[in-house]
Each structure stands twice: as structure tokens, then as C-alpha cells.
Amino acid sequence: MSLEKVRISKQGRDQLITLKRRTGIENWNILCRWAFCLSLSDPTPPRKHAITLEGGVEMTWRTFGGEYEDIYLVLLKERCKQDGYEIDEETLTQQFRFHIHRGISHLVGTSDMRSVDNLIKLVS
């Protein structure tokens, strides 16, 4: 396991397709950044569950984070500390995956998520 590759499940991919259609945001990485930050804003730890990655989406960590990749990594590490987890590569990868999937599910489950404006309202 490694944070070099960001892997999203088939269900997550399908949800991202829905979000792309609803919001007009074309890039997976932008939607995943919003999803990650939305999940981090939830004070509860994400639920641990098996995530099947076959048939999903894959991007590099650099593509996910862009010029702010270091900031996203610091945010993930701080959240892991806050939730009482070790800061090792396996834990970071697992927790990142849980946060991304929780965030995507929250975004797609928001009934008025029909535009970028709705996305901004959700986080402000």
C-alpha cells in the first residue's frame, strides 16, 4: 500500500461520474479534493470497511494533490493523530481511502449538489 497511487472503487467512480455530470467539474482529482476535505470536516472517524478497488479509478498522489499535495498529506497526518492512529504508510493509505470514499458518498448524497455554487455553499 502506498500513497503514490490514489485508488477509487468502482462505486466511487460511478459516484464521481454522477458528480461530474451534476456539477460540470470535469476532473476526478478536483472532485476527490473536495470529497477529502469534506470528510475531514466531519469530526467522526470514517467507518472502516472493505473497499474493492477493481474497476475503479486510479491517479497519482501528485495528480490528486497538485501543487498542494504536501498540505493534503499534512492534513491527513494530523487527522490520523487526532483519531488516535499511527502515522505509518499503511495507516495513511487506509485512512485516506476511507476519507475519500466517505466524502464522495456525502457529495453524491447531497440532493442539491447540482452546480459548483452548491458545492461551495456546502463547505461555507
Describe this protein's structure.
This protein has 124 residues and is mainly α. The chain has a single domain, classed as Arc Repressor Mutant, CATH 1.10.1220.160. 61% of the residues lie in helices and 6% in strands. It is built from six helices and two strands, in the order E-H-H-E-H-H-H-H. A two-stranded antiparallel sheet has the order 1-2. The longest helix is centred in the last third of the chain and has 21 residues, at 89-109. The mean pLDDT is 91.
- List the helices and strands in order: EHHEHHHH
Going across the major beta sheet, what is the strand order?
1-2
Segments where pLDDT lies below 50 for 5+ residues?
none
Gyration radius, in Å: 14 Å
Mean pLDDT: 91
Provide key terms for this protein.
61% helix; mainly alpha; globular; two-stranded antiparallel sheet; 124 residues; Arc Repressor Mutant; 6 helices
SSE order and pairing:
Layout lengths: L4 E4 L1 H14 L4 H14 L15 E4 H5 L3 H14 L6 H21 L6 H8 L1
Antiparallel strand pairs: 1-2
